[in-house]
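Please, structure for the following, as tokens.
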Amino acid sequence: SGIGAAIAREYAARGASVTLVARRRNLLEPLAASLAVPTHVVTADLSDLAQATAWLPAAEAALGPVDILVNNAGVQIVGPSEATDLPAAEALLAVDLLAPMRLCLAVLPGMRARRRGCIVNIASMAALAPTPGMFYYSAAKGGLAGASEALHGELRRHGVHVVTVYPGPVHSDMEAASR
């Protein structure tokens, strides 16, 4: 939903095959049906780090190697830091930081071997301007931004591009759920 759906639509409009990954299959299937390109749908909970990269072999078997990875999945918790449920906070860190890092490392060998590819990490303005009440979200997005910028420097001479995106507030399901 939100940014992810818009990105999928834009890539499809340019003729790219798309793999859609999210927890909610009921949102993925209508989106996939609306795209006029080959589409692979994966239901995975990226807070379960064992699932973070498990879907890649089937996606590559269906559509070929990953040329562009967009790490966009996100969870947001807004509220007093000391009142935050620790398991929910750790799930946020898995989805917003650890899963994207695992995915980057999983696609890198193929991209480096082909000497082409692009990784797009959707961070947040919260990475640059941490917001009170967003203790874990700011930490996760700051970590993703730092890792992404470091990877960009590491790969710049290998034909693999790494782009870090810093969106501001976006009206989406995630924003609504965090209230």
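Residues 112 and 158 are 6 Å apart (CA to CA). DSSP finds six helices and five strands in the chain.
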